[in-house]
Amino acid sequence: xxxxxxxxxxxxxxxxxxxxxxxxxxxxxxxxxxxxxxxxxxxxxxxxxxxxxxxxxxxxxxxxxxxxxxxxxxxxxxxxxxxxxxxxxxxxxxxxxxxxxxxxxxxxxxxxxxxxxxxxxxxxxxxxxxxxxxxxxxxxxxxxxxxxxxxxxxxxxxxxxxxxxxxxxxxxxxxxxxxxxxxxxxxxxxxxxxxxxxxxxxxxxxxxxxxxxxxxxxxxxxxxxxxxxxxxxxxxxxxxxxxxxxxxxxxxxxxxxxxxxxxxxxxxxxxxxxxxxxxxxxxxxxxxxxxxxxxxxxxxxxxxxxxxxxxxxxxxxxxxxxxxxxx
Length: 327
Hints:
44% of the residues lie in helices and 15% in strands. The protein is α/β, with parallel strands linked by helices and 327 residues long. It folds into two domains: 2-71 and 101-112 and 139-192, Rossmann fold, CATH 3.40.50.300; 209-319, Magnesium chelatase subunit I, C-Terminal domain (Helicase, Ruva Protein, domain 3, Orthogonal Bundle).
C-alpha cells in the first residue's frame, strides 16, 4: 500500500505544480478515475476546471479531447458518424472525439438534451453504436463535464437520466487569498513541463486494487439508509423536508458513494474504508441525484441544505477498525 500511495501522491504533486489550491477537486477527479466513474464540476469561469483535466491527462499519459458544447452541436459531433466515400463507393465510419481516455465536456449545459443524451451510452457502457456497429472507447475512460451556475440564457438543464450517471458532482468555489496569489504569480511564468508519473497500464492496475479495498457492511448499510431517507424522509423523522424533495437519490447514489470511498481510501494509503471517507464524499455523491420540488426551487433551498438535515439525523456509524484492518 505504501508504494501505491506514493505513486498517487506523486501524481497529485505533479498536478499541483500547475493547479494551485482546489485540493478537493483534484482529489475527487482522481477518485472518479480510480473508481471508473465520471465527474461533473460546477463553478464560475476561471477556476481551473478545464486546466485540471488537461493536466491530469498529461500526468497520466492518456489521450485527451476537449469538446466545447454549444447550442448548435449535434450528436455526430461527439460520437462520430458514417461518411460516404465517392472514390470507394462505400460508407466509412468516422469516430468522434469521445474515443479517448479523458474527455472534457466543457459547459455541457449549453447543448440541448439531444446532444447531452448522446453521451449516455458511452458513459454507462463505454461503447458507442454507430449504424449497425458498436465501437469500444479506450480504457480507462473518464468524462469530466463542467457547467456554469451563474448563466441561464442559452443553457439547458441536464436530463435526470444523464446527471445520474455522473459518480460525483463537485462544487468549486473561489480560491483562498494565498492560493490566488500563487495562481497570479504562476501566470507570469512559463508553465512547467510535466512528467508522466503513471502509465495507463499502471492506472488500470490501480483500478483493480480499488475493488479489493474493504468496506464494512455497517457503512454500506448506512449509505443505503441515507438514500432511503431522501426518498421517504417522513419515515425517518424528517417530515420537515418532505415538501422539498420530489424524488430522492437513485440506487446509483449509494453505489457511487461506496465505490468512491474505496478509491479515496486507496489514495490515502489504506486498504479499508473508514467513516471519514464516506463523510467526505456523501454530498458529492448525492447532491445531483435529488430532484427538488417547486417549493424548494421557489424558496432557493439547495440540495446540500437538505442533505445536511438528513446527515444530522443519521450520523455515520462507528466501526471496528481493528477488524477492518484484519480483513
